[in-house]
Each structure stands twice: as structure tokens, then as C-alpha cells.
Design a protein that fits this description.
This protein is α+β, with helices and mostly antiparallel strands. The chain has 3 helices and 5 strands. Strands 1-5-4-3-2 form a 5-stranded mixed β-sheet. The longest helix is centred in the N-terminal third of the chain and has 17 residues. The chain is globular and about 35 Å long.
């Protein structure tokens, strides 16, 4: 997704697109709004919308709607580009380590396996 009226470009990798398509209508709308906020605010987007994940160069977009919670992982590429790798529906308090590893693999693939 590229929106020309936003100061930052947001790129969705295929796993992120597929995840969004599988969400219910309302949660999908909230997730799309979170992505739009990333495009507007970039590095200034913070809690409650965005949070850095530990020591990884990876961030999560935090989305909640009527008791449903999902997370979308993203990273900064260069300049004004942010890349959303993937997402998952959250069922526990702690971030899902398998999903974080998946996002980190997608990030490495994006950079040609050099990250």
C-alpha cells in the first residue's frame, strides 16, 4: 500500500496482506487505520499504537477491537519507507515468539538474507 498524501511509504509484504484479508471487517478496518497512522507519523508513532520489540530492530502495530487483539510487525527500511511483514491474532499477554521469528525471517528475506 502506498499513499501519496502520507509523508512515509508503507509497504505490505504478502504475508501481511494475507493476514489482513483474513481478519473480520471491523478488526481489518482498525488494522488498516493503524497502518495509515504509521504512514503519517513514521518514527513518531508510539504507544498505544506502536511499540519496539526488545532488542530486535522490529516494531509492532498494536490493534484492538471489541476484545480482539492483533499485532502487525514492521521495520524501517531506509529514508521514509516502513515495511509490514506479517501479523497474528493475539491470544495471550506475551508476544508470540514464533511470530516474531517469522517476522525476522521475512525481514531478512526482504534484505536478501543479509540482515
Amino acid at each position: 500500500m502506498v499513499c501519496f498524501d502520507m509523508p512515509y511509504e508503507v509497504v505490505l509484504l504478502d504475508p501481511a496482506r494475507n493476514f489482513l484479508r483474513g481478519l473480520g471487517e471491523k478488526l481489518q478496518a482498525k488494522a488498516s487505520r493503524a497502518i495509515e497512522l504509521l504512514g503519517y507519523f513514521g518514527p513518531l508513532l508510539r504507544m498505544p499504537h506502536s511499540r519496539k520489540l526488545g532488542d530486535h530492530d522490529l516494531w509492532e502495530l498494536r490493534v484492538q477491537q471489541a476484545g480482539m487483539i492483533c499485532r502487525l510487525f514492521y521495520f524501517h527500511d531506509q529514508g521514509r519507507i516502513y515495511v509490514v511483514t506479517s501479523g497474528y491474532v493475539k491470544k495471550t499477554e506475551k508476544a508470540n515468539s514464533d511470530e516474531i521469528r517469522k517476522a525476522l525471517r521475512l525481514k531478512a528475506d526482504y534484505f536478501g538474507g543479509t540482515e
